Backbone:
């Protein structure tokens, strides 16, 4: 699965895209949010991609967002221990989406990888196109 989020302005109109591939099958998903942030769109792409899976799966998610990868693989355990507070006792931003992503990941075996955005990775480029086209279609 390749996921990406986009935002025109931050905050501003946003889009998300997810490319799911299994064997020779491919599914492309995207969506639009009128007023949002880039980080919310990055998280939404992963959430919507996981929601599209039928039954528990082994899934490898590629994201160009270090925020998403670090958040779900490193930071989230401490956020949960601190009752969704950061080390500086601030509320975790986007906690609603982090909780949803965490819950979905519990249903699957998920491996996360970071890829450099806009560097020619085919799956990432398609996910980016899906995210930006969702914005273009609404504006």
Residues:
């Amino acid at each position: 699965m390749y996921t990406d989020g986009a935002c025109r302005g931050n905050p501003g109109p946003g889009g998300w895209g997810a490319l799911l591939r299994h064997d020779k099958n491919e599914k492309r998903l995207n969506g639009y949010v009128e007023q949002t942030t880039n980080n919310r769109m990055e998280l939404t792409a992963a959430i919507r991609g996981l929601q599209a899976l039928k039954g528990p799966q082994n899934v490898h998610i590629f994201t160009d967002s270090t925020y998403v990868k670090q958040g779900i693989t490193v930071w989230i355990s401490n956020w949960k221990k601190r009752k969704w507070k950061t080390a500086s006792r601030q509320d975790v931003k986007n906690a609603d989406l982090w909780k949803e992503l965490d819950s979905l990941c519990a249903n699957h075996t998920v491996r996360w990888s970071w890829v450099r955005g806009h560097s020619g990775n085919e799956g990432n480029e398609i996910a980016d196109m899906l995210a930006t086209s969702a914005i273009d279609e609404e504006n």
Notes: The chain has a mean pLDDT of 97. The chain has four helices and five strands. The chain has one domain: 2-138. The longest strand covers residues 25-36.
